[in-house]
Amino acid sequence: MIIETKAINSKVLERNMNISVYIPKGYENINLPTLYFLHGRGGNENILKELEMDKVADKLIENHVINPLIIVCPYIANSRGINSSETYEEVQGKYGVVHKGLFEDYIVKEVISFIDNSYKTIKNKNSRYIGGISAGGYVALHIGFNHQDIFSKIGAHMPAIDLNYEDEDEDECYFENKEMWLKYDPITIAENKKINDLKVFLDCGNTDEGRFYIACEKLYEILKSKNVNVENHIFKEHHNAEYIISNLEKYFKFYGDK
Fold first, then answer.
1. How far apart are CA 200 and CA 197, in angstroms?
2. What is the per-residue pLDDT across 15-67, written as a single tens digit (0 to 9) for each?
């Protein structure tokens, strides 16, 4: 197993952006599926090591529980993964700096292209997955739903989904107006968009401080009504890193199922 940390010279953000990549044993001999896994607010590309994702993946791959896969953890700042501004800028929000810019374009156009050109990936949607934790789970959902030609699996782990625009703290500066909020709201997208050939994994803690299990249940019911292959889980514990670590094996079994 190897973990590489590199920097992408992003043209749309006009800056270098770090990215960590997990490469399993035997990579030299075969092209592999790719999981793009996104951090939450305040996080960065180092979640690959901080959450011990590499150790869990190593164990499951070595024991033939899951298929080998490449795991990509890009730094997406505190951006919500949206195209919020034509140019990169930093705005002081209530809970810290909010990063604005063409972050959706960065993830979809630049990160995937960089990985496919740099590593031995299987370059089709059936072997490309996206997941994330908290705010990263929100990002994984709206990007996965809006780019179904790119991804076949979406994992949203304790995803930070507000049920109403009014619940969004205006001091956080992510969205200019309700129209923009609706454009990226996973529940609204699921209600209005045709969804084909996607597998979706939702989960949240039973004592999650954001009560995001309510949004997960609503999203699950919408997707189920559309015959989407979706599962929704309520596991124990809070909205924190310990919750994610305790459930990593379940996540990898979803992404890397045999």
1. 10
2. 999 999 999 988 888 999 999 999 999 999 999 999 999 999 999 999 999 99
Nearest to residue 159, comparing CAs of 143, 182, 183?
A: 143
Separation in Å, CA 154 to CA 34, 180, 184, 187: 12, 22, 15, 14
Q: Which two tokens stand for residue 246?
A: 């305790």
- CA end-to-end span of the chain, whole Å? 20
Those residues with Cβ within 8 angstroms of residue 169's Cβ, 6 or more apart along the chain or in another chain? 93, 94, 95
C-beta atoms surrounding 206 within 10 Å = 11
Run of H or E residues at 223: helix 213-225
How big, in percent rounded to 5, are the helix, strand and coil portions of the chain? Answer: 35, 25, 35
